[in-house]
Amino acid sequence: MESAPAPSPGERRRDAAATRRRLLEAARDLFAERGYEGTTVRSIAERAGANQALLFRYFGSKQGLLAQVIAQGGLEQLRATPPEELFETALRSMLTRSADGTGNRSLEVYLRSIGRGDEAAGTLRELGEEYQGALAGLSGTADGALRADLAMAWLLGIGLMRTVVHREPLAGAEPDEVCRLVLGTLAHLWSAPE
């Protein structure tokens, strides 16, 4: 009986990378849907079609996985988006989802996972500080950090009401209408005198 040839090291890496990606995607969706506490390692592994042991091998813990999910989505969006487009990009990503479910769900994960574990809390804090830093310069005023915090508080509040609480009419509002109202008002925050 002839055995199948062993996979080359490159094939193993591709499989490992694909499994890692599936675990991240499954965790992202489950954390966004159920929150950190409501998501089990078993449910993540099942959705990813992987063994639970691989989750621990790649991420160390559920908290480590949460930190990676947040870092991957939020920090990538932050670094890829010009500051003047950042608020709208974050708002639109929260208001809409791509048809294939691969949209950025960082804000949902953030809202449902705040305060969960030291490792994740550090990543959440870092993400908030980086967003504040990017937005603070938009007003060109000495109180730019305060204005950035106010904008972020509004964004998080909208996210909480729409995606976590499902409060109508906001939960069912058209994304373009929400953006029109919010961005029009936000322009006053950036331009208001000190």
Sum this structure up briefly.
With 194 residues, the chain is mainly alpha-helical. It has helices at residues 9-34, 41-48, 52-59, 62-80, 83-95, 106-113, 118-136, 144-164, 175-191.
Walk me through the topology:
Elements: H1 9-34, H2 41-48, H3 52-59, H4 62-80, H5 83-95, H6 106-113, H7 118-136, H8 144-164, H9 175-191
Helix pairs in contact: 1-2, 1-4, 1-6, 3-4, 4-6, 4-7, 5-8, 5-9, 6-8, 7-8
Outline the structure in words:
This protein has a domain at 63-191: Orthogonal Bundle (Tetracycline Repressor, domain 2). It has 9 helices and no strands. The protein is mainly alpha-helical. The chain is globular and about 55 Å long. It has helices at 9-34, 41-48, 52-59, 62-80, 83-95, 106-113, 118-136, 144-164, 175-191. Residues 98-102 have low confidence and may be disordered. 72% of the residues lie in helices and 0% in strands. The relative contact order is 0.11.
The H-and-E topology, N to C, reads as HHHHHHHHH
How does the helix and strand content classify structurally? mainly alpha
Number of E-state strands = 0
- What fraction strand? under 5%
Largest sheet: none
CATH 2nd-level architecture of the domain at 63-191:
Orthogonal Bundle
Radius of gyration (CA) equals 19 Å
**At the first level of CATH, what is the class of the domain at 63-191?**
Mainly Alpha
> Per CATH, what is the topology of the domain at 63-191?
Tetracycline Repressor, domain 2
Tally of separate helices: 9
- Low-pLDDT sequence parts: 98-102
How confident overall, as mean pLDDT? 82
Helical content class? over 70%
Q: Report how far the terminal alpha carbons are from each other.
A: 81 Å
Shape summary:
globular
